Amino acid sequence: MTETGDSRAARGPWWWSRRRAAVLDIVLAAISAVECGVQGARFAGEAGIPAWAGVLLGVAAGGSLVARRRWPVAVVLVAIAVTPAEMGFLLGCVGLYSLAASDVPRRIIALLTAMQAVGGLIIILVRVHQSIGQEPDFNPPTWFIPAISVLVALGLTAPPLLLGLYVGARRRLVESLRERADGLERELALLADRAEERAEWARNEERTRIAREMHDVVAHRVSLMVVHAAALQAIAVKDPEKASRNAGLVGDMGRQALTELRTMLGVLRSEVAEARPPGSGPGQVGVRARSSSASPVQPSARVPA
């Protein structure tokens, strides 16, 4: 199958199958880079490091999202690595979705998801505890902080994971159905070819049988003609009247043999006659035979007195 110019133009660069997917990943990576860059600057101020280093770290981490289709495991590892710096919300969600939708083994998906969830849970626990500590009038029960932290961590982890698993399962199902349909189509084509071969074999067998019968019939008629011709030669001088009857009988046998021969040949040519142009091929034999039988040549042999 040839590939049109539109389909070639729609194919994306590098590892992207479509140009639209490449544009989407580049846009997501740009947004993530801006987000992580801003969060990196804030982290640099809190950690006492140069701001440009934090921004550079955030931009590099967020920009890694551009490779989410090619290396989803690496993207999730980057998101886990920058979790202590409290950056990469979009990076973590989209990376986890891409990982779950990919063909990576489930045990690796479960391990990386657990690592990201635990890292987020620890950061949330610390932040919630600090926020509550700044409010002396708010004294929640002991289970409140862990419960809120677990719920928030699950809320950040479960939706992209479940959505990615659903999309990946759906894509694999569609591919499986497409492969099955292609397999059925090939099997049907093979069955059709075999049926055509069996039909052709049956036609050849029938032609062989008809040719054999034609040979037997024509041979019988010709044998009778030879016998009557010999008898005609023997009695031509003694009994001219009987010789004349035998000559007519020989002519009738010859015409009958030609008729049967034309009938058998017509059966054999019934399937290929339509494919040949009129007035060409073996069909002319039947025409010449019919013209010969329509105006037979009368014998002019003279019997000696």
Please characterize this protein's 3D structure.
It is an enzyme of class 2 (transferase). Its EC number is 2.7.13.3. The chain crosses the membrane at residues 20-38, 50-67, 73-97, 109-128, 143-168. Residues 271-305 are annotated as: Disordered. Keywords: ATP-binding, Kinase, Membrane, Nucleotide-binding, Phosphoprotein, Transferase, Transmembrane, Transmembrane helix, Two-component regulatory system. The chain is mainly alpha-helical and 305 residues long. Helix 4 (72-81) packs antiparallel against helix 5 (89-101) and helix 8 (240-268) packs antiparallel against helix 9. The longest helix is centred in the middle third of the chain and has 92 residues, at 144-235. The protein has helices spanning 5-10, 19-47, 51-63, 72-81, 89-101, 106-133, 144-235, 240-268, 283-294. It folds into 2 domains: 10-139, no CATH class; 199-294. It has 9 helices and no strands.
